[in-house]
Amino acid sequence: MGVQYRRKFLQQFLSGSAALSVYPWLCPFADEITDLTFEGDTEDRYWKKVRKQYTPSKKFINLNNAGVNPQAKIVQDAVSYYENLSNEAPSYYMWRIIDRQKDMVKEALANLVGVKGEDIALVRNASEALETVIFGLPLKRGDEVVLSKHAYPHIKFAWQQRAERDGIKLKWVSLDLPSSDQRYLINQFDEQINNQTKIVCVTHITNWNGQVLPVKQIAEVAKAKGAEVMVDAAHTVGQRPLDIKSLKIDYLGSSLHKWLGAPFGTGLLYVHPTKRGKLYPLMAGPNPKAKHMKKFEHSGTKNVALERAILPALVFHNSIGTERKMQRLQFLKTYIVDRIKDMPGITIQSPTGIEFGSAILLVHIKGEKNFDLVQKLERNWNIHCTLSENEMLSGIRISPNIYTLLSELDTFVEAMKSLTKI
Length: 422
What we know:
14% strand, 13 strands, Aspartate Aminotransferase, domain 1, Aspartate Aminotransferase, domain 2, alpha/beta, four-stranded antiparallel sheet, seven-stranded mixed sheet
């Protein structure tokens, strides 16, 4: 999304009387948010301006942004505004006023991911979106599903439950990661797909080490063999450009409270128009075979304040731009890698380039237990991170964000120096 487009988006949104009447709390932020579109700042000055839009902890350095992103102040204020309004008369404001704005939110969100508002449903997270697909598909005994051993745990659990319940067969793709070999990554999936394969599940960016998989090329292979494709894009939206239509996939789910910085407990589900009729919703509505996306949004009473506050998260994100954000995240990761890669006992278990790498960095220190490392970093250096372990990868996971200061990364580097000397 170019600078001129972002400016136009903001000008239209912030200057529209209808928008300001619906989002009155935007007024105090209008100048600051618009200022983030300006060119000409030094990188350091620009990202310090971005930092001021957040409320980071003064107690510790947060390097686990992959778990869940903090929200910018504009989003926090939006949630508070809608929560307070709802509590004045819940059944009136929640259902008659606030819920009517959903289509505006969906249109803006859909524009970011390359589809139309009618093509997506608002859900709570990527797990809910993808489990809607997993449990809603009309699969029968003997049908095969191809998925990677590096898939997110909840997705693996859901497929294993479906296999136990319905007798479908799971075929696991083993990937030696990190990898920057596109042909290798494609072939590993290709080898598991045959004429019994009904659906291929691909994680765009793995939560374990931030590996980016070539989704479009894997989808082409799967489609050529007659299989459908489901994409876990939990870490994609807000971190990297995404054009769902160009991928030619059938299903996609993402969490919006990760790299988009939307309210906690927000996500999206995309289902190709030709697949909606056969897919049963996770929670029943009046017509389970309807061909519209709204049937996937029946979940009883929900927190509409969170859904409405997705829009200011989009305003904030678009004021910076996906490309600029991705480049900054890559810079921060590279900043760390360049300073620790030659330390004794250090193994970098994430791709370092931008094509196959993301904002997530997995670091292993020989002879150290990951849990102990996480505890030491928090206790001795006030650094919050997490461990990441599966049967193939093991290390501590570091994930800075656009508000992260270089001085904070320097603290992590100094901690690594100390730890590798022990």
